[in-house]
Amino acid sequence: MPVQYTAIIEEHTAVRTACGIFDISHMGQLIVTGANAASWLNRMLTNDVADLGVGQGQYTLLLNERGGVIDDLIAYRSGEAAFFLVVNASMIDEDFAWLEGHLDDGVTLTNESDHWAGMAVQGPKAVEVFSKVFPDEILPPRNGITAMADGCIVCRTGYTGEDGFEFFSPASEGIAYWDRFVAAGAKPCALGSRDTLRLEMGYPLNGNDLSPDRSPIEAGLGFFCDLDKGDFMGRETLAQQNANGPALRLTAIRYLDKGPPPRAHYPVASADGVVIGELSSGALSPSLMAGIGMAYLPAEFAAIGTHLQIEVRGKFFPAVVVKKPFYKPAHSI
Amino acid sequence: MNTPSNLRFAASHEWVRLDGDIATVGISDHAQAELTDVVFVELPAMGRSVDAGDPTAVVESVKAASDIYAPIGGEVVEVNPEVEADPSLVNTDPYGKGWIFKLQVKSAADVDTLMDAAAYEAQIG
């Protein structure tokens, strides 16, 4: 996927106001089946898969022993003893190796990433686009997954905050489906707008905002970690941080005035000019036309309303800690 | 793509228009189209002395920050406050209202080291 097909703001706006389509064929699909699939996944992932009925999905995290994030993913329960995991492209091999290294009896793990093409169709008109392409199919409810009659899979999920779906077809049929969604009104969108859309929602990007040295508690993702479901990889660190409060917090920051677009790795300073961290992500928000970013900061600087500064090429621009999401879509389901 | 024949161009996509010893500098239509969505322009300090090739201003799109290099040496004698207030002028009028800074040049003959419109068009293909 390129950075842009036309222009980032144009693509971003299409998703916020109508419908955009992203090629997500690079993402990975891991299949977990077997009598012990659910109990094993519950020891490998942070969220509680027992909460999932057949056809439902949840955002969840794969952690190392130290509670650091290997990957964030969506786990769908495609059958009573079958799960469909959609993982980040750059992490497919690492996730697979880690899971395979911890495999239990009665569990089968398969990497189907090469088998599937994927596209995310997102925006207030996404449902309309789906109905035009598939008049006889019905989208699953929020976070749900449906195996379609033609061998494709559709999930009511996304990475933009808008209503929409993620659609997986056999790789050889991907281009044909892409063309059908585009003909039905979805505008091709690329990595640049994918990043600004997810950042406006405060959604983390693995490699930027998530890392093996940071826990989901520090990342503000405690909601997706069920500390009461029994033991799981990394739980001890999470429980400690949850009880004592994490030393660092992934903090949402917004410029107070106009300024150059904030970008990853720009230093973040306190109001009195002491550097206290760096942006893990940053962008000019096309919806807000304001600079936004996230940074791991000492907890004492993470309270909403705290005044900070972002350093760009030696100059300091005033900013303030805000609540996530930065932007509330008008059309989310 | 628009490439006015009265301008000279640097390989790094700046254009220059020389009036006496004052060189007006901006970025080419090709450059603005590649950048898309210019959302911020950082202007140089007045009076700053620059050599050819020095990073002198910054133009940022949503995608990336790009240095704008002085195509020839000189002293910054004027900057365009309009592009600071409305950076999209760099997209909509790159050879007019989207100019970025003016240099009082050391040697007007330096402009001859830059490409003419035909050579620049050949470069960008």
The secondary-structure class of chain A comes to alpha+beta
Give the strand line-up of the largest sheet of chain A.
8-9-10-7-1-11
Query: What gap, in angstroms, lies between the N and C termini of chain A?
Result: 27 Å
CATH topology of the largest domain in chain A: Gyrase A, domain 2
Walk me through the structure.
The complex is a heterodimer of chains A (333) and B (125). Chain A has a six-stranded mixed β-sheet with strand order 8-9-10-7-1-11. In chain A, strands 12-15-14-13-16-17 form a six-stranded antiparallel barrel. Chain A folds into two domains: 8-199, Probable tRNA modification gtpase trme, domain 1 (Gyrase A, domain 2); 247-333, Elongation Factor Tu (Ef-tu), domain 3, CATH 2.40.30. By secondary structure, chain A is an alpha+beta fold. Chain A has helices at residues 8-17, 37-44, 92-101, 126-133, 174-183, 191-200, 235-244, and strands at residues 20-23, 28-33, 57-63, 69-79, 82-87, 108-111, 116-122, 145-147, 153-155, 164-170, 187-189, 248-255, 267-270, 275-285, 290-298, 307-312, 315-322. In chain A, β4 and β5 form a beta hairpin. In chain A, α1 (8-17) crosses α6. Chain A contains seven helices and 17 strands. With 125 residues, chain B is an alpha+beta fold. Chain B has a single domain (8-107), classed as OB fold (Dihydrolipoamide Acetyltransferase, E2P), CATH 2.40.50.100. Chain B contains four helices and nine strands. In chain B, the strands form two sheets. A six-stranded antiparallel β-sheet of chain B has the order 1-2-3-9-8-5. The longest helix of chain B is centred in the last third of the chain and has 8 residues, at 117-124. Chain B starts with 7 loop residues before the first strand and ends with a helix. The model of chain B has no long low-confidence stretch (mean pLDDT 96). The chains are: A alpha+beta (333), B alpha+beta (125). Chain A binds chain B through residues 3-4, 6-10, 192, 196, 258-261, 263, 283-284, 286, 313, and chain B through 36-37, 39-40, 42, 58, 60-63, 65.
